[in-house]
Please model this.
Amino acid sequence: MISLSLSDKVMIGTALLGGMSGVVGSFAVLRGRALVGDMLAHAALPGVCLAFLITGNRHLLGLSLGALASGLAAIAAVTVILRWTRTKEDAAIGIVLSTFFGAGVVLLSVVQKPSTGGNKAGLHAYLFGEPGGMLNSDVLLLAGVAVVVLAMVALFYKEFLVVCFDTDFAQSQGWPTLWLDLAMMAALAVVTIVGLPIVGVILMAAMIILPAATARFWTNRLSVMLLVSCGFGAAAGVLGTRLGRGYPAGAAIVLTASFLFLVSLLFAPQKGLVARLLVEYRLRRRIADEHLLRTLYELSEPQLPESPVIPLESVREYRHWNSLERVLERARDEELIEWGEEQVQLTPLGVHRAAQLTKAHRLWELYLMDYANIAPDHVDRDADDVEHMLPEALLVKLEEELAAEGRLPAVLAEVPESPHELSPET
Amino acid sequence: MSQTAFEVHDMTVAYHRRPVLWDIDLEIPEGKLVGIVGPNGAGKTTLIKAALGLVQLASGKVEIYGKSYEEQRHLIGYVPQRESVDWDFPVTVRDVVLMGTYGRLGWFRRPGKAELEIADRSLQHVGMGAFAKRQIRQLSGGQQQRVFLARALAQEAQIYFLDEPFAGVDAATESAIVELLEELRTSGKTVLVVHHDLQTVSDYFDYVILLNMRLIACGPVEETFTNENLQKTYGGRLTILDEAAEAIRRSKPLQ
Amino acid sequence: MLTGITVNAACALVGCFLILRKMSMMGDALSHAVLPGLVVAFVLTGSRSMVPMFVGAVIAGLLTTFMTQTLHQYLRVPSDASMGIVFTAMFAVGVVLVKQFTEGLHFDIGCVYEGALEYVPFGERVAGLPRQLFTSLVVLLLNFAVLIMLWKELKLSAFDPALATTMGFSATKMHYLLMVLVSVTTVASFEAVGSILVVAMLIVPASTAHLLSDRLGWMVVLSVLIGAVAAVLGFWWATYWDTSISGMMTVAAGCLYAIAVLVSPRYGLISSVLRNIRMSLLVLRDDVLAMLYRIEELKSSKKFSIAETAAAVGGGWLASVSIFQLQRSGNIEQASGSLQLTDQGREAARRLVRSHRLWETYLVEQLGMPLDHVHEPAHRVEHYIDEQIQEQLAAELETSDQDPHGRQIPH
Model:
C-alpha cells in the first residue's frame, strides 16, 4: 500500500467525491430531483446507526451499506406515499426525510450511551462531516465507487440523456425508463452515502446540486455539462479542504462550491449576468446609433441623393435622445457623419448605411400594416422596437413576400416610401 | 352606443421577452356576451390575464369602465381554467363560492351572514345547492365548473372574464352555463369568454374577438364572424411575426 | 413536554399552509437558512434574547426566499435546485460563522440540529417560565393571531393565487408573509427541538390532517392536535427508552402519519381495500344472479351446485362469500344440491339483465359498436345502472324489446 499523508488522502478523497457528485448531480438537477439528495442524506442516518449497532465498528463500508439500505427504504416510502395517498411530492419528501432522520437521532442516542461501548466518534461525523479521519481504505472505497459510477454513466449516457429530457418519449421508444430512473437514483444514493462522512448531512445535498447548477451556466450540452460539473465538484473539494483549514470541512467545501457558483452566475460567457448585461448594453447602444442614422436619413430625404447639412436643433426635435453627443461621437468615429458646430451631415458611407436601416424599418412597417392589421398610426412605434433585432435573412424574406404581394415597386428602389407621414415625435 | 365596459389600448404582452400579443386595440360596449376565439397559442388566455393584471404589459394599457384595472377590481369577476387549482384542497363547495366575496370584504374582515347568503344563492343559481357541503374533489368536471361560476356570481361583478368554461363539461352543464351567461347579459353585465368551439360561437355570443397573436377583428358576431376573418385567424401563423418575436427573445437577454 | 406541545402546535399552524401551497421543502430550507441570521444576531447583541434572534431569522428567511425566487425567475435555475443552493449555502455560512465567532461560547451547533428538549427545565427562566417555553408560546400566539386575522386571505391565496391577485390580495405578499412566519416559528423551535424536528412538525402533522379532513378549518385544528399528540407520545417513549426526545417526537409524528395513511376513513389504504372488496362482492353477487337467471331463461335443465356456481363466476373465496350472502339475504336457495333463484332473487336478476341488455342495445344502436364487442362493456357497466338511467335508456331506445343478440329485454 502506498502511504499517503493525511492531507493528501483528504484532498484525493474530497476531489473524488466532488467529481462524482458533480456527475450524478447533473442528472438529478436536470431531472428535477435536486432535493432527493437532501432526503437521501438525511434518511441514511438510521441505517448508519443500525449498521454500527450490528457490526460494532465504524468501518466505512459497513456503515455505507446500512446507509444505502435505509436510503432505498426512504425512496420506497416516498413512492408508496405518492402512489397511494393524496399527499403531494414535496410533502412526501419532507415527511420521509424528517421521520427517518428523527429515527436516526433516536438510534444515535442509543449508540452514544456508554453502555453500548464502541467507537462512536465516526457517527457524529455523519452529521457535520469530518474528512480528517479518513483512512486508506476509505479513499479506496471512494475511488472504487467513482469508477463504478463513471463507468455506469459512460455506458448508459444516451439512455440517461433521453430519460432526463423526455421520459414519455423514452418510454414510447421502448426504453425501460423505470429501471433507468432507478439506476440514476441508485447512483445518487451511493454517492450521497459515501460522501456523508466527509461533508456531513445537509452539505452533501449542496454537493449534489451546486456543481451541476454551476456547470449549467457554462454549457448547453449534457456531455460538456457532466465534465464541467465533475471538474467543479473536484475543484470545490480540493480548494475547500486547502483553504478551509481550521473550519468545519464540509462547510468550507460547500462555501467554495457556492463561491464557484456565484462566480459562474456573474461571469459565465453568454449565460452569466455580466455577459448578459453587456449584450443588453451593446444592444441599447446600437439602437441609439441606428436611431440617429434613420433620423438623419429622414431629415435628409427630401434632398437625397445630395446629403444636406442638418442643424442639430432639428435632430433634437425629431425624437427624444438620452445622450445625443455620445451617439454623434460614435457615428463620427465610424466615419458615418461629419459633425461640427451644431450641424451634422451624413457621409456617403453614412447615407448608404442609413438607407439600409430605413429600408428595414419601412419594410417592417408595411408588413405590420398588411399582415398584422395594425393601424398606420401605430406602426412607427412598433417598427422601432423590432427593426433593430431583425436578422438579415428575415429581411430578405420580408422583402420577397411584400414584393410577391405587389406591395413594393417591381424594381425595388433603395428605400420604399414611408407608409405614413413623417413627423417629429413630440 | 352604450358605455364602454372594457378597453385595450396598444397592448403588447411578452412572456420571457417573446411577444405573444402584438399591439392589441379593442373596445367592448357594456352588456355584451363576448367570445374570444382563435387557434391554440393565439394568446386568448394571455389577453384575459393581461386584462386582469396577472401578467405584465410590455406596453399599452387596459381600462375597465374608463379607469385602470387597479381602481376597478371590485367590478371584475374571474373564472380561471379548471386545471389551475388543486382539487384536493380541503375546502367544501360552499367555501369555494364564499371566496368570491373576499374581494369585496378587503383585508382582515371575515365573511358574515350576508356573504353566506350570497354564496348559497349563487350555488342555487347554478343548480348546485345540494352539493354545498361536499369536498370539491368529489364533484364531476361539469360540477366543478359550475362551482367556479357560482364563485364568479358571488363576486357580484360588472364584467366577467371566463377562461374556457366549456372545456370538458357535459352537455347539461354547457347549456346551463349558456343560460347563466344570458341572464348575466340581461342584467347588464359584460361577459368575456375564451371559447374553443367555432360551431357554437354565433349561437352563444353577440360579440366576438378574433385573435391570432394580434387582433384580427372585434365586433358584433354578424359582421365580424365572417369566413374571411376566420380565414385570417386560422390561416396559419404569421411566420415572419413569429420569427421576429423569436429574434427579440434572443437579443434581449435581460429586462 | 409543554414546550414540545406549544412548538408542535405553532409549527402545525403554519405547516398546513406550507403543504397546501406545495412548499413543504421551503420549511426545510428556511429551518436551515436562518442559522447565519441567528449567529449574526447573537454576535451583534451578545445575547440570546428573543427579539434580536427573531429579527435575524426573519431577515435571513426573507433573504433566502428572495434569492431562491430570483435565481429561479431571472437566472432560470430550476426551482428545487435554486432552493437547494440557497439554503445549503446559507447553512454553510452559518456553520463557518459559528466556528469563527462563537467558539467557547454557549452556542452548540449540535443542539441546533438535534435540539435539547431534555434540558429545558434547567435553563433560564423568563416570566416564570422556562425560556424556550416562553418563546414558543409567544410564537404560537403570533401564528394564531395572524391566522385568525388573515384566515380568508391565506386560504384564498393558497387555493387560487390568480384569483387572490385579481382581488387585490397579492399572492406574492402572502408568500412572503408565510415565509416570515415560518422563519420565526423555526427559530422559536430551534433550541428546544432542533431544525429537523421543526421540518417534521411543519410538514408531518399537517399532511396527516390533510389525509383526514376535507375542510381547511378542521385540517388546521386536527394538525395542531396531531402535533400535540406526537409531542406527548414522543416524550413518553423517549423517557421510557431514555433516548432523544425530539427524535422520538418526530418518529411519533411519522407513525401517526403512517396510521392515517392506513385508516383514514375516506382516503386511507384500508378503507380503499374494503371498498374494493365490497365492490367486488357486489359484482360477484350480480353475476351469480344474472347467470342463474339466464339458465332459467334458456329453460336449461342444467343444475349448478354451490361450488360450480362459484367457479363459474371466477372462483376464489370472494365468490363463495358472495353466494353465502345471497343465500342469507334470501335471493337464492339451495334445493336438492343445486342453486335456484327465489322470487325475490328473480326480480333482482331481472333488473340486472334488463340493464345489461339495454346497455348492449344502446351501444349498438347509438354508438354503432359492432355486435361482438358489446357484451364485455355491458358486463362491466350493468352493476352501476340504476332505475333512472334504465328509464332514460329505454326512452332513448324507443321501443325495442330485444337486445342486439335477439334476446328478450325483460321488463
The longest strand of chain C covers residues 332-335. The longest helix of chain C spans residues 269-297.
